[in-house]
Amino acid sequence: MRKILLLFFLSLILQSCLYRNNEGRWTTDPAESAFEPVTVDRETFESTIAISGPREIERAGKIYVNGDMVYINEVNIGFHVLDNRDPENPENISFIEIPLATDLAIRNNTIYVHHAVDLVAMHYNLGSIEIVHRERNVFPRLNSPDGFLAEDFDLEEDQIIIGYQTRN
């Protein structure tokens, strides 16, 4: 009985070393992913944070309140900035474009944003932003929709994954 249990658990452990591709077949080759990463170089990636005029909220994520300001995440696109001095009539005043941004925290008027793989600290002042600090590669790279890790793809270190597309 012990041998049977040992073989059963051993087979479970070995199965965890396999990938499942889109056809339902098991494989150990990440090259069989149905997706390939879409990347940009780090310099281009770091220049993607910008401020623009207000826009309609289409796909709201988390909401943050700091004093009279409200920040609403537009998932993976950036943050809407609203002036909330009149809570009955909040005014949408600007949009901070931060591709792949999903989270934000504020402490002592410094905004900390998850920007894909980086953590960015910045100051916002009515229509302008100043990046105070960028801590690179704090967060893991984006994994493929079919479960392959970003590390499974052969990428240069300065390449940032911004999405995935289906293989041709």
Keywords:
168 residues; mainly beta; Lipocalin; five-stranded antiparallel sheet; four-stranded antiparallel sheet; 2 helices; LVIVD repeat-containing protein
Question: Please, could you describe this protein's structure?
Answer:
The structure is a single chain. The chain is elongated. It has a 5-stranded antiparallel β-sheet with strand order 4-8-7-6-5, with no helix packed on it. Helix content is 11%, strand content 46%. With 168 residues, the chain is mainly beta. The protein has helices at 2-15, 42-46; strands at residues 19-20, 26-27, 35-41, 50-52, 60-66, 69-74, 78-83, 91-97, 101-107, 110-115, 118-125, 128-135, 159-166. It has one domain (19-168): Beta Barrel (Lipocalin), CATH 2.40.128. The longest helix has 14 residues, at 2-15.
Q: Please indicate the percent range of residues in DSSP E strands (runs of 2 or more).
A: over 45%
Give the helix level as a range of percent.
10-25%
Q: What is the helix tally?
A: 2
Order of helical and strand elements: HEEEHEEEEEEEEEE
**Strand order within the widest sheet?**
4-8-7-6-5
Q: Structural class, from secondary structure content?
A: mainly beta
> Kindly, what is the distance between the CA atoms of the first and last residues, rounded to a whole number of angstroms?
49 Å
Counted up, domains total 1
Remind me, CATH topology? Lipocalin
The total beta strand count reads 13
Q: Averaged pLDDT, please? A: 87
Unreliable residue runs: none
Classify the oligomer.
Answer: single chain
Q: What is the CATH class?
A: Mainly Beta
Largest sheet: 5 strands, antiparallel
